[in-house]
Phospholipid/cholesterol/gamma-HCH transport system ATP-binding protein
Amino acid sequence: MGVEIRVEGLTKSFGSQVIWQDVSLTLPAGEVSVLLGPSGTGKSVFLKSLVGLLKPERGNIWIGDRNLPYLPEGQLYETRKLFGVLFQDGALFGSMNLFDNIAFPLREHTKKSESEIKRIVMEKMEMVGLLGAEKKLPGEISGGMKKRAGLARALVLDPEILLVDEPDSGLDPVRTAYLNQLIIDLNAQIDATFLIVTHDINTARTVPDNIGLLFRRELVMFGPREMLLSSEEPVVRQFLNARKQGPIGMSEEKDVSELEAEAKAGIDPGRLPPIPPQLLTSDGRIRKAQSPPGAWLRAHGIQPPPGSFIDELGRNWLEEWPRYVAAGNNHVGAPAGPSQSPPPGPQFSQGSKGGPPPRRH
């Protein structure tokens, strides 16, 4: 079962350069969260701070009742065992085969017998679809297989928190889609708390339960997926639409004169794209953290962009969800009451437009 992470007023600098400041958010236990942001906004630095590899100048990182930045070395070492980390390139040892790479944390941090290590390694390799590749070297496999091997290694100590840094880095869209599906399936199976750093808009729009956006050394927004995907915040709209018009520039942020010129020219920053249905597990189970489509929007009286919650087969999941649950897809991992009526609040249709912007959190 995952654990909650509470970040309060976190600030990180390198010399005189402030990377981000006063970042506060809560990663709910057992849920999948994504952190977005333009290049150079310190997303990977944030992951390293969460695991205690970098110490912030100010702020708290509460993991249960332990405040990570202020732990003595011994307690920090023990707390890190709660984490599994998938690095951008997999970070595999080139001279070791996949079995030994995945077994490495068990041999380093436990006193398990080789027979027990073999059982665990083979179990994790099966989870990520790598059975039969145990003897291959990292140089003999594809980028997607390296990612899956790195993920298996991150899982061998049964972490309660899994940090995933740019899982789509170096992968084509098809293999990124497979990896996204694997993340959703793993979350349903092990209930760990996931935090994914990514630039991939499709991943951010379809995978997580929560999304955050870093920009201008601050956390612009963090909250449920539907909150951010329906936001009228200019930087959110620009990032989700991948447009040049808006606060984000080539270096990171545009200066005042550029923004004023865009405003005078009346350039439309683009409508928010439709909100897609959230990715379901391969076996149809409903994850504990998964909410019915549109539940957050209804509860806050917000209309989604036209065309939202319609999948590639043309199914409208606002209508499909009750049938999906009634058909018996609420087995292992299902929330307490997914088949109950939607949360109170105004109803909406696919053709409706507009609606007030969500509150900042």
Observations:
- Residues 38 and 121 are 36 Å apart (CA to CA).
- The first helix runs from residue 43 to 50.
- Residues 331-361 have pLDDT under 50 and may be disordered.
